[in-house]
Amino acid sequence: MENPSTPSNFIKNVITEDLNSGKVKEIVTRFPPEPNGYLHIGHARAIWINFTLADEFGGKTHLRFDDTNPIKEDTEYVNSIQEDVKWLGFDWEELRFASDYFDEMYSRAVLLIKKGKAYIDDLSADQIRETRGTLTEPGSNSPYRDRSVEENLELFEGMRSGKFEDGAKVLRAKIDMSSPNINLRDPVIYRISHTYHHNTGDKWCIYPMYAFAHPLEDAIEGVTHSLCSLEFEDQRPFYDWVVVESEMPNVPHQYEFGRLNVGQTLTSKRKLKLLVDQQHVDGWDDPRMPTISGLRRLGYTPEAIRNFIYETGISKSQGVVDRQMLEHFIREDLKLKAPRTMAVLKPLKVVITNYPEGQVEWLEAENNSENPEMGNRQIPFSREIYIEQDDFMENPPNKYFRLFPGNEVRLKNAYFVKCNEVIKDEEGQVVEIHCTYDPETKSGSGFTGRKVKGTIHWIEASQAVPAEFRLFEPLINDEEIEEEEVEGAPEKTFLDQLNPNSLEILQGYVEPGMRVVAAQDKFQFFRHGYFNVDSKYATPERPVFNRIVSLKSSFKL
Q1: H/E element holding 82?
Q2: CA quadruple 120, 125, 130, 134: dihedral positive or negative?
Q3: Are the CB atoms for 490 and 382 separated by under 8 Å?
Q4: d(C-alpha 259, C-alpha 262), whole Å
Q5: S-S: 304 plus which of 45, 231, 333, 452, CB 3.0-4.6 Å?
Q6: CA distance linking residue 154 with residue 148, whole number of Å
Q7: Contact call for residues 50 and 227 (beta carbons, < 8 A)
Q8: Are 202 and 6 in contact (CB under 8 A)?
Q9: How far is CA 277 from CA 10, 36, 269, 272, 274, in A?
Q10: Pair 4, 54: CB distance under 8 Å
Q11: One of 12, 259, 377, 470 is an active-site residue; which one?
Q12: Mind listing the pLDDT tens digit for each residue in 158-217?
């Protein structure tokens, strides 16, 4: 794997100090996704940090599903997350589920009640929210806060046995309703939910809250360095409180790093799920989605994503990375790997009137001019070919060097051709052009008699393979869409920024040598960019190509 170690960063320094001081003997990290959606490009940084740092120091990483909210979870997400992590090039030491620890979590909650550190509250969710206070004003105590230990134990057992309806009662930590950290104002740690769980079935009707369960999971698994994104920084005091007050033998420590935000890219699972549920996109793996599966279907490689993450580094600061940086790394990864071939996306028929009828000539073309080891291929040439509509203009502007009446251009890997006649339909649209070719100008012949300024690509008509091409633009128009939240209607805000031109579907042709292609095969189409065979809609009879990225960019590392 490329870039096997991480660049110098503050987490790496902490780990080095902990090992050198003997504070820890072995590094244990974990990647702990909630199975309530598909992984996205932001998760790729968390995956890379946890697995790469542990591996660099001879430690281990668990893949653990924080499956504490069965209402939103599904085995589809469990399976997709495992697939994505492996596709990115990582493997876990052990596969874990938070739900495997529900018995232990329950016993720790009972311990908190016995210590007077937790109580059953009958307030509704809205009432709890109203009495929580604000960032500048303290909260107020619940009228149920001073229940006796015995009553709390009895009620908690009643919650577990199913005596109460959803929302009737919750278990809250008893900390400090006047704390300046709002996360310490008696947070809810258990709620009632008569919901089937994908892993435990109907065993439980109460479930721990994520903020309570997460530190316990880390402690149970012996995690030494709990690495998470910066939005959890304010949760760290409660994380530490849970570990200490629950009297966990192992004491993990939480470290936060800046999350990865990419321009014009959503990384909110709630918003991404809304796009899927409302069918704005073609599923979680739509090539316009920033999910790992979407990027894979678009044509990104794990190497390109890992190299991108490596270059963005690890820091405590938040920021937005230019989308062009991600695109730069897929170009760099594919430029020596992808065969270079020709495709016509918007066909215009050309008849070469002085070329013998019925004759087919085979010409030699390089598969990749930057990688001679990829060899050459044979392509057919005949009297009728297709060129791009954009490569012909009847009345061109100055410095237009492609085909127009009276002008001569080179057909790549073939001959010079000159436009002599334009054929139009009843509406005046150009439907065919007639040219003549010069047999002396064959590519590779050494002809130097004259020069032309334009070279265009083409496909021989009789053996052309019909193909579909899907061209993508960013799904979101606004560069700062993740920052834009209007209270009361955040969904409307970002849905208003959807790009109506994010997908363009074209019908054209590819070379006959591409009649048999497989999903995930990648090519560079001359002058168009890098393309990937779609894994969902391509058929043996009609290949479908997704444009991964155009050929050129102004981005500089």
Answers
A1: helix 75-87
A2: positive
A3: no
A4: 10
A5: 333
A6: 10
A7: yes
A8: no
A9: 40, 13, 12, 9, 5
A10: no
A11: 259
A12: 999 999 999 999 999 999 999 999 999 999 999 999 999 999 999 999 999 999 999 999
Q: How far apart are CA 215 and CA 105, in angstroms?
A: 10
- The verdict on whether 306 is a catalytic residue reads no
Amino acid (one-letter) located at 548: I
Measure the CA–CA gap between 52 and 50, rounded to whole angstroms.
6
Tokens 């599966």 identify what position?
293
Is 269 in the active site?
yes
Helix axes 102-114, 149-161, angle to 10 degrees: 160
Instruction: Name the residue with tokens 């329950």.
Output: 106
CA-based nearest residue to 307, from 283, 335, 280, 287: 335
Query: What is the Rg, in whole angstroms, of the alpha carbon atoms belonging to the chain?
Result: 31
Q: How confident is the model at residue 555 (pLDDT cuts 50, 70, 90)?
A: low
**Using an 8 Å Cβ cutoff, are 415 and 442 in contact?**
yes
Catalytic pick among 30, 34, 64, 327: 34
Residue keyed to tokens 């018995």:
103
Gap between the terminal Cα atoms of the chain: 22
Contact 109, 170 (CB under 8 A): no
Residues 208 and 97: their CA atoms lie apart, in Å, by 13
Report the percent of the chain where pLDDT is more than 90: 87
Which residue type does 384 have? E
Distance, in Å, from the CA atom of 219 to the CA atom of 251, rounded to the nearest integer, reads 6
Amino acid at 47: I
pLDDT tens by residue, 271-304: 999 999 999 999 999 999 999 999 999 999 999 9
**What is the sign of the dihedral through the CA atoms of 521, 523, 525 and 529?**
positive
φ, ψ of residue 424 to 5 degrees: the values are -120, 160
Other C-beta atoms lying within 10 Å of the C-beta of residue 305: 25
Which residue in 108, 174, 191, 269 is the catalytic one? 269
8 Å CB contact between 304 and 519:
no
Q: Catalytic: 402?
A: no
The reported pLDDT for the residue numbered 480 is: 56
CA dihedral 526, 528, 534, 537 (to 10 degrees): -110
Query: pLDDT tens, 481-509?
Result: 555 444 444 455 788 889 999 999 999 99
| Gap between the Cα atoms of 510 and 527, Å rounded | 14
Are the CB atoms for 165 and 205 separated by under 8 Å?
A: no
What three-state secondary structure class fits 550?
Answer: coil
CB 349 within 8 A of CB 386: yes
Question: How far, in Å, CA of 546 to CA of 536, rounded?
Answer: 11
| pTM of the full structure | 0.92
Task: DSSP for 318-334, please give it.
Answer: -EEE-HHHHHHHHHHHH
Other C-beta atoms within 10 Å of 243: how many? Answer: 22
